[in-house]
Amino acid sequence: MRKSCGERIARYAWRPGERYVWAGFAAAATGFALASDLAPHRVWGWSAGAGYALAALLAWGPAPRRAARAVAVTAAALLPLVGLVVAGAGQSEVAVIERSGHLLAATGSPYVAVPGSVTDFNPYLPGMALFGVLPGDPRWWLGGVFVATLAVARPRRVGPLLACPLVALPFAVGGVDLPVAGLMCLGLALAGRGRPGAAGSALGAAAALKWTAWPALPVALALVAVREGGRSTLRCAVVGLSTATAVVLPFALTDPAGFLRNVVAFPLGLTATASPAGSPLPGHLLAAHVPGGRVIALALLAVGALLLGVSLAVRPPGTVRTAAGRLALGLGLATALMPATRFGYLVYPLLLAALAHEPARRGPEVTDRSVERTPA
After folding, report:
1. CA pair distance 199, 234, nearest whole angstrom
2. CA dist., res. 43 & res. 48, Å (int)
3. What is the pLDDT of residue 295?
4. Alpha-carbon distance 54 to 50, whole Å?
5. Is 290:296 a contact under the CB 8 Å cutoff?
6. Which of 55, 133, 240, 339 is deepest in the core (most CB within 10 A)?
């Protein structure tokens, strides 16, 4: 039976949860604009704050929920992205990618062999330089890869996630973690859909961009092993490792000292030049204020990785949701414990946690209990 106009108004007028979320986002974005000393961040904060405030007003009335979300996505992600690209303003990562792309095209390597200042360092794996080789601003490609991969991995959640400040901010100002996280989510989703080769390709591509993607491969392999067996697991591993190795190994062999200095020592804070990644999370606080704190933080990071590996061996995940949740926990701990870390890295556990709460798909996706009951 069709609902009356009054019933529809009542349905949309009472959405306290969503309206308060948008209001909280508006306050956070506005506060961020007032507190930040970076012009691109201030531009994002004012635009996003206004958009979130309007979304809260729309959620308070009878407008459809998708209208509030559309306003939030437009004002928090799309408008600041276009404005900052046109103005040529962005986060420092954009300049790093552009320079690495120019170096790759000119010298055959995306790295400065002996970096002298923080701007000379390129902490990303070689695949990231491809975004600097492609025409136009790298943010178009970074954002495009993120949206495309997330649309395949989580088609129902692209809009809400783009409206989230932790995603909208790097989308607009040039965070490099979004395509990496998107490929990780895609790899896990494909692994759960019985496509080990495609999963390996997605995870290998992510692993060629940044070290943060590498923990996803053992989690995906554990998932494939439970669901598909040894042959599919081997196929996923071979494809994933081959893809990453084909991109990374030539540059590591050409200039091993420069490679290690840029992508290993610098992110771990082991160079004379300090990484600008220094959000006040536990690992950074240990490294900065406790004697021997850097060693302690790295030791805790290693223990966390070991515990994740043990959990995969003792109780491997049987569904995409379980695997994503396990990886979200591991990367959340890693973000907290790394000596050189940023709040922006929390986008990894956020997106993986969202994948962990994706409704179960019909067909190949099954519950952990059903997997455990399947005869060997």
Report:
1. 12
2. 8
3. 85
4. 6
5. yes
6. 55
**Separation between Cα atoms, residue 106 and residue 123, nearest integer Å:** 19
Task: For residue 217, give both structure tokens.
Answer: 């491969």
Q: Where are the beta strands (DSSP E) in 218-273?
A: none
Q: What is the value of pTM for the model shown?
A: 0.87
Write b or e for each residue in 168-195: b if 16 or more Cβ atoms lie within 10 A of its Cβ, otherwise e.
bbbbbbbbbbbbbbbbbbbbbbbbbbeb
Q: List, for residues 84-102, the tens digit of each pLDDT value.
A: 999 999 888 999 999 999 9
Question: 308: closest CA among 296, 325, 293, 284?
Answer: 325
Collect the ranges in the chain with pLDDT lower than 50: 1-14, 363-376
Rounded to whole angstroms, the Cα distance separating 93 from 132 reads: 11
Q: Can you give the three-state secondary structure of 122-145, one letter per residue? A: CCCCHHHHHHHHCCCCHHHHHHHH
Q: Provide the 3-class DSSP secondary structure of residue 295.
A: helix
Residue-by-residue DSSP string for 25-88: HHHHHHHHHHH---HHHHHHHHHHHHHHHHHHHHHHTTS-HHHHHHHHHIIIIIHHHHHHHHHT
Contact 129, 104 (CB under 8 A): yes
